[in-house]
Amino acid sequence: MIGYGLNNGLQTLIARRAGENRPDEIGKIFGQGVFISLIIAAVGILLTWFVAPLILKAVIHSPEISKDAIAYLRIRIWGLPFLYIYQMRNALLVGTNNSRYLVSGTLADTIANILFDYIFIFGHFGFPEMGLNGAAVASIIAEFTGMFVIFLVIHYKGITKRFALFSHFRWSNGNAKLILSISLPLIFQLAISLISWQFFYILVEHHGQTALAVSNVMRNIFGLEGCITWALAATTSSMVSNIIGQGKSDKVRGLIWRVIKISTGVSLVIAILINLFPSVLLSVYGQDKAFTTAAIPVVRVVTSAMVLMSFATIWVNAVTGTGNSRITFLIELVTIIIYCIYVWLVLEKYSLSLTIGWMSEWLYWLSMFLFAWLYMRSGRWKNKVI
Q1: What is the C-alpha to C-alpha distance for residues 218 and 224, in angstroms, rounded to an integer?
Q2: What's the angle, vertex CA 3, arms to CA 59 and CA 98, rounded to 5?
Q3: What separation in angstroms does the CA of 219 have from each of 263, 283, 299?
Q4: Do residues 68 and 57 make contact, with C-beta atoms less than 8 angstroms apart?
Q5: 175-202 burial by CB neighbour count: b if 16+ within 10 A, else e?
Q6: Cα separation of 207 and 31, whole Å?
Q7: In this predicted structure, what is the pLDDT of residue 126?
Q8: In this structure, what are the phi and psi dihedrals at residue 164, rounded to the nearest 5 degrees?
Q9: If you average pLDDT over residues 123-151, what whole number do you get?
Q10: Angle at the Cα of 227 (from 26 to 281), degrees rounded to 5?
């Protein structure tokens, strides 16, 4: 969550400097971003190593499970520096319109993860069988592999030299303040969004195991659509920042609508296909007929929410692209308050159906869209300088 928020803030800044045609500043901002991410990773490692065990021992009643969880975390956390640097290069490549190179690192990461999971979890090629701890080791190696491969690619493609990426690897109070001023609101935004999601699932669990199982499937369906929508949203944020950097603020709204046509068009196709054959999709999860009967009405609600998300998230990320991430946070905060009140009333106080509960996604995305659209329409973002 922290790395993702830092990545989004850094991406906005890098795209702005790219639009302003200031390549040296991109190198400085990237170097500072890596510096900050390593400091945060170090803090995360220390907290996980010394504080997390105390918390886990207090909340997990089984000493054996607690011991296994602590052992896993104390291995897994060492991948944090590689993961954060990996996310920083995402910001660099997307922000400089070189996102096509992301595939190299992701492919290397995936292959390494599958290979080393096989080796370490089950103990092949002379290595001991490590079980869950083996998965932690495999993930660390995979993250390092992805990071290493992508840095080889950007070096080979001349991106390192073009932006002087490692010529400015020193602390700068000015750049650090700039990066954190944009990234911190995004981190808090993601935090409250995650908390509200957990709150929703806690309330769903009160409605029984079938409701929880149906909701878990709905989350997977959202993820299917999200792969496309969130990628387009990240592109929107970067392109909006770049265009503003070029001094072409008047073209921002036109850009947003062009991306929305693509995003919403794809979402509509996916939603129509799912609604035509919901039983086929649900059969993949191997549940009984009662599950399918309960899930189909929820599928109708979720797929329509996917369409709302397809344009709402584009507008919200456009706000992020202006550099005014505090507004993005405020939009999220107000929306989450409305959302949590709704789900509590529907699922807890009045104990209405799961289908009505999932209509909270309509409320959420319509609210996000309305507030983001009003802000962009106001033109106040044109006065923001980063």
Answers
A1: 10
A2: 150
A3: 19, 16, 11
A4: no
A5: beebbeebbbbbbbbbebbeebeebbee
A6: 49
A7: 82
A8: 50, 55
A9: 89
A10: 175
SS (H, E, C) 250-308: HHHHHHHHHHHHHHHHHHHHHHHHHHHCHHHHHHCCCCCHHHHHHHHHHHHHHHHHHHH
Q: What is the pLDDT of residues 47-85, one digit of tens each?
A: 888 888 888 777 667 788 788 888 888 898 899 899 888
> DSSP secondary structure string, 133-156?
HHHHHHHHHHHHHHHHHHHHHHHH
Q: How far apart are CA 104 and CA 98, in angstroms?
A: 12
Q: pLDDT of 13-24, one tens digit each?
A: 999 999 999 988
Contact 325, 186 (CB under 8 A): yes
Residue linked to tokens 């919403």: 264
C-alpha torsion angle, residues 18, 21, 26, 29 (rounded to 10): -90
Name which of 9, 1, 3, 78 is nearest 237 in CA terms: 9
pLDDT digits 0-9 by tens, 237-246: 999 999 999 9
